[in-house]
Please model this.
Amino acid sequence: MATRLKLVFTGVGDRKIAMQFPYVRGSATGAEVKALMQGIVADGGVYVDVPTGIVGAELLDSTSTPVDLG
Model:
């Protein structure tokens, strides 16, 4: 099972900005995720749509099943 981290921020005009990061630890703590998000907001100048505030975060677990095409 793969775990991804989805981060949601506000941008200009209260627009929602979502980012997803693959291959994260499923055991990441709220404090670790918040620190990451604060760093992204603080260094927002590298983004076209600059994140200005933190909305929330989710750990997403997914599985994949091969499809038999034969």
Notes: The beta strands are 2-10, 16-22, 53-62. The helical segments are 30-42. The two ends are 25 Å apart (CA to CA). The mean pLDDT is 90.
